[in-house]
Structures are given as C-alpha cells and as structure tokens.
Amino acid sequence: MPDLQLHTNTTPKARSSFERLTKYIRVRSDAGARFVEFDFAIGDPSLFVELIMPPGAFEAFCNNNQVIHMTDEQMADVDAELQKWRYGEDTLMSRNHNRSA
C-alpha cells in the first residue's frame, strides 16, 4: 500500500500565520487519571474540540503545539456559553437551573 500524503493548498505564508495563532488547552480530567481529557482550541478559546490522550501523548501534544492553559476568565466565558446552549436564554429551564446553582 502506498504511503498516504496530505496535500494542502496552503502557502508557506498561510502556514506561518496559522502557526502563530495561540493554541489553548483546558484539562478536564483529574490529576493522575489514566487518560487526560481536555479541550483544545486554536485562536479562540470558545471554539474547541474535546480530546482524550494518554499522559505521555498529551505532554508531547502540548509541547508540539506550544499550548497555553486557558485563563480563569476564558474558562468562565466558555462555561457561560455552554450553559446558554444547554438551557437557552431567558427560558423557564435556564431560570430553574440558575436558581439551583
């Protein structure tokens, strides 16, 4: 079977611009867990994917991507946005959820 190669139409300048974007992580799993569960975002902490990796792979991933941890403020903004998607805004469910918090 021939080696598969990824072909992109990006120019070196476009790749360079992408590489300069800040890459964020937010670890969601407990310290010492068998796998690291985390959010990974590029450029905008609110647009992320959820990933799971063994600790060694996670460490290599973070080093290769030169990630930074989301700030408390960024995490709070992400959580607030997730709540809006889950419960809506100005709905009976959102009002009930906010009272119990």
How do the helices and strands line up, and which of them pair or pack?
Layout: H1 12-19, E1 23-27, E2 36-42, E3 48-53, H2 55-65, E4 68-69, H3 72-87, H4 92-100
Parallel strand pairs: 1-4
Antiparallel strand pairs: 1-2, 2-3
Question: Outline of this structure?
Answer:
This protein is an alpha+beta fold.
Give helix % range: 40-55%
Count of helical segments?
A: 4
Characterize the biggest β-sheet. Answer: 4 strands, mixed
Roughly how many Å apart are the termini? 56 Å
Which value, in Å, is the CA radius of gyration? 18 Å
Element-by-element helix/strand order: HEEEHEHH
Q: Pairing-aware structural class of the strands and helices?
A: alpha+beta
As residue ranges, the low-confidence spans are none
Features:
101 residues, alpha+beta, four-stranded mixed sheet, 4 strands, 44% helix, flat, DmpK, Phenol hydroxylase
Write a structural description.
It comes from Nitrincola iocasae. Pfam families: Phenol_hyd_sub. This is Phenol hydroxylase. The chain has 4 helices and 4 strands; from the N terminus they run αβββαβαα. With about 100 residues, the chain is of the alpha+beta class. It has one domain. The protein has a 4-stranded mixed β-sheet. A hairpin with a 5-residue loop joins strand 2 (about 35-40) and strand 3 (about 50-55). The longest helix is centred in the C-terminal third of the chain and has 16 residues, at about 70-85. It is flat.
